[in-house]
Design a protein that fits this description.
This protein is an alpha/beta fold and 221 residues long. It is 27% helix and 27% strand. It is built from six helices and nine strands, in the order ααββαβαβαββαβββ. Strands 5-4-3-6-7-8-9 form a seven-stranded mixed beta sheet. A two-stranded antiparallel sheet has the order 1-2. A hairpin with a 2-residue loop joins strand 8 and strand 9. The protein is globular. The termini are far apart. The relative contact order is 0.13.
Length: 221
Amino acid sequence: MTSPDYGIRGIGMTSARTRERLVRRLEEQGIRSQDVLAQIRNVPRHLFVDEALASRAYEDTALPIGHGQTISQPYIVAKMTEAVLAHLGNDRRVLEIGTGCGYQSAILAPHVKEIYTVERIPELLRKTRQRLRDLDIYNVRFRLGDGWQGWPKYAPYDAILVAAAAPSVPVKLLEQLGESGCLILPVGPTGRQELSLVTRGPDGFEQRSLGAVSFVPLVQG
């Protein structure tokens, strides 16, 4: 699948050469999906962080976005997206918990039919809604709410992505996962989190680890 050209070209530290270095690093770390790598290359990550941090936007690191939240490390975004696409065909519906600045949505958007994203911080949600519109991304629906509750109205989902760590897998999210669907989320306390892949089959749920990670906590309420 060809990724969209967002028509935004950076200069200096946001240049195409700088983006290409990031893509090569992700390949060296094991990211294989060319669809995912193309999106990492094309999406202008410097627009998702404060201007003061733009020079660091294409480093493979998490960065603060205010309100005690972060934009996830590109490798983790790529890994989560690759895992979702490995379990889905095209034209599928995804629930995202933790909208944040919208970077994960922008990476995933061309490869699914619809994204339903839930964020608990109003100011983040307002800015992200406008940012994705500015990038001509229109297949994302937004909701202000408690991520622990998901978004039952549009369930079941073919995949669920969670961008914050829970001590255990939220039951409400399992209930909203469709047959043969997958749920990807960090599980565990600070310092001992594992990125978990939960799949739903005819005999129930199976869970396996995709490696150690570090995320902000999934706050209830």
